[in-house]
Specification:
The chain is α/β, with parallel strands linked by helices and 150 residues long. It has 5 helices and 5 strands, in the order H-E-H-E-H-E-H-E-H-E. Helix 4 (74-88) runs parallel beside helix 5.
Length: 150
């Protein structure tokens, strides 16, 4: 059980959530937030890819916690956001970074492949936004950053 002083500190500590943190922009963004005093949740679909960020966090004593979050799955998003909100009491910044690109001629992709990409790249961000907005409204504060590329 946490003492009230520790609980109070946790309630006021800035919390960042970054999707797609296993590599690239999400990885670097998670490190940037943690190095600037945010308790950072580096989220990723496959936490088996978390070794590099976990090792860096341990080595540099960074406040990073890896959390499983698949933006293409309603339950995964809700569970992750609920878990973070319950543990930290707040989410100050969300960076919607999870996504992937496909290259090639449009006629070479099946409709299922195209839909899967939209499910992650577009609807995934919407899912995360819908999940964090009620908490941010109660806090009367919060920032959401959406990263997109083609």
């Amino acid at each position: 059980m946490q003492c009230s002083t520790e609980n109070n500190i946790m309630q006021h500590e800035k919390v960042a959530v970054v999707t797609g943190s296993s590599s690239g922009i999400g990885f670097e963004t998670s490190l940037l937030f943690a190095r600037n005093g945010f308790y950072t949740y580096a989220t990723m679909r496959n936490i088996d890819k978390s070794n590099k960020i976990t090792d860096l966090a341990k080595r540099d004593n960074l406040p990073i916690e890896v959390s499983q979050l698949d933006v293409s799955n309603d339950e995964s998003v809700k569970d992750a956001v609920d878990r973070i909100a319950e543990k930290r009491g707040r989410i100050d910044v969300v960076v919607n970074n999870a996504g992937y690109g496909s290259t090639g001629a449009v006629e070479d992709f099946s409709m299922d492949e195209i839909k899967a990409q939209f499910e992650t790249n577009f609807f995934g961000s919407v899912r995360v936004i819908q999940s964090v907005l009620p908490l941010m409204r109660r806090q009367k504060d919060g920032t959401i950053v959406n990263i997109s590329s083609d």
